[in-house]
Design a protein that fits this description.
Length: about 500
């Protein structure tokens, strides 16, 4: 932040000023206006109960030192009146960076900036029970000796993926590195991949860079828009370690495009004695198109059924669990991956294992794949909720809001998205609360909602502030309505 200048020093470069110009106030003299760290911390502390005192002191110290250094480096003099405001603003921004719950009104289901997938309540309960005590993460309670980690979970995941075996690491990026490190080493280090799949997933995850970082050699085949099985076949040689497919999870290609179908590629790989691996990314465990008017996202079971030897996918995208990377497929390959020394570096802890275990159990218990009831996984529920139900909730909230002069409230159709780099084309019909106001007010209105209690994140579209209800848990409707009422009263006055 720029510190306002004091009147006397506006035009003059302070430090270079010749010594004989004694009538020029030396900005350094203004340093005496800086309060002591102790004094400033004592004055501001009560305003920031979420900041433990050592943190508050550290931030104040850093800011005061910054002000002092800038004056000593020839900057403008300190305006004593602005120091406290500057400290307050900095502390406010810092206090807001403490991770806490947020109401997601963006309509983006898997919002990476908002923590991707929320967990079901029963999963949260199981996590609390395991996290606050000891647990049997690595003990065989039957025999009373050390046991394997995550035996239940690995079997549950393998069952859900209809695979021989499965295991888990920290995220899908780590899963891919682990697979590459394990399969593409030594004299066989080449990975064949289509040029149409050398993609960037987001968060700096670029497939070619991941490959190189894993020590594998990239063998690109085909072109951006067309790759045929023949292209792969011609590239197979002495150094080939595996064939890799990367699911186009965050973009789609249309027009003159062709890619090798998985069955033919699997046959080619089998004949050549090479593993075929697919990075699926999203990893939906349910038929997405049966729940919402969206495209069909291939499930791990389908991909494995087409002959892919090993798949990896995220735990916190369409699966709706914690951040994790799931590897599923042929037993010998999964075993090998788990024995790789690098596995130890990307192995999840008991908290993640518990959350993923309970999420997997929700799917297994619901019998989704047999057409049974939906699992109590928020991402799945949010996809499935009907427009009528959303309309009803939106109307109920709107009816509780006060009418004001300056902000007009209405309910209108909106479009929710999957987000998280999944199903980019999916436009899910939804309902939003709309707040129309003077465009000059929008920024302040949105910030007020983001920074209050509870924190509410919406989005601005066509000059309106919108809260899409598809991504708001119904249990939050009441607090949301109360908060909106408060802010309306403030802005409408
Ligand atoms: C999202 C995605 C990843 C990265 O998954 P993380 O779990 O975030 O590491 C990798 N590959 C594909 C195809 C993806 O869509």
């Amino acid at each position: 932040m720029r510190v306002p200048l004091s009147v006397a020093d506006v035009e003059l470069p302070p430090v270079e000023a010749p010594a004989n110009l004694s009538f020029v106030t030396d900005p350094r003299a203004s340093l005496r206006h800086l309060p002591s760290v102790e004094k400033a911390a004592a004055a501001l502390g009560p305003e920031f109960p979420v900041l433990p005192r050592p943190l508050l002191v550290a931030v104040v110290q850093r800011e005061l030192k910054g002000l002092r250094d800038s004056v000593l480096a020839g900057g403008a003099a300190i305006d004593p009146d602005s120091v406290e405001a500057h400290l307050r603003e900095t502390l406010e921004a810092f206090a807001l960076s403490r991770i806490a719950p947020v109401i997601n009104g963006t309509g983006v289901l898997i919002h990476t900036n908002l923590g991707r997938s929320p967990l079901g309540a029963s999963v949260g309960d199981a996590l609390r029970a395991v996290a606050t005590g000891y647990c049997n993460v690595e003990i065989d309670l039957d025999r009373g000796e050390r046991g394997p980690r995550a035996g239940f979970l690995e079997t549950a995941l393998a069952t859900l993926c209809e695979a021989e075996a499965a295991t888990v690491c920290n995220n899908c990026a780590a899963a891919l590195v682990l697979i590459l490190k394990h399969l593409a080493t030594g004299p066989r280090d080449e990975v064949i991949i289509s040029r149409g799949e050398l993609v960037e997933i987001g968060g700096g995850f670029r497939v070619p860079e991941i490959l190189e970082a894993s020590g594998a050699r990239l063998r690109e085949v085909g072109t951006t828009n067309k790759t045929r099985v023949d292209d792969y076949a011609r590239a197979i040689g002495d150094r080939t370690a595996m064939i890799l497919k990367v699911h186009r999870s965050n973009f789609s290609m249309e027009g003159f495009v062709e890619s090798a179908d998985t069955e033919s590629l699997a046959a080619l790989a089998r004949d050549a004695g090479l593993p075929l691996v697919e990075d699926l990314g999203s990893g939906a465990l349910f038929p997405t198109d049966a729940l919402a008017p969206v495209e069909h996202e291939p499930t791990p079971a389908e991909i494995i059924g087409r002959g892919v030897d090993l798949v990896c996918f995220s735990g916190d995208k369409l699966l709706g669990g914690p951040q994790a990377g799931i590897v599923a497929g042929r037993q010998d390959l999964v075993r090998g991956v788990k024995r790789d020394p690098f596995y130890r570096a990307v192995r999840p802890d008991k908290l993640i294992l518990t959350v993923l275990q309970e999420t997997a159990a929700l799917y297994l218990e619901s019998g989704t794949r047999a057409g049974g009831m939906l699992p109590d996984v928020p991402v799945v529920r949010m996809l499935a909720v009907t427009e009528e139900a959303l309309q009803e909730r939106a109307d109920a909230i709107a009816s509780r809001l006060p009418a004001t002069e300056s902000v007009r409230v209405s309910v209108s159709p909106s479009t929710a998205r999957c987000g998280g780099g999944t199903m980019p084309k999916a436009a899910i019909p939804s309902r939003a609360l709309d707040f129309e106001m003077d465009p000059g007010l929008l920024g302040r209105w949105a910030r007020r909602l983001r920074t209050g209690t509870p924190r509410v994140v919406g989005h601005v579209e066509e000059g309106r502030f919108r809260i899409d209800l598809r991504t708001v848990d119904p249990s939050a409707d009441a607090v949301l309505a109360t908060r909106l009422g408060e802010v309306l009263a403030e802005f409408g006055a």
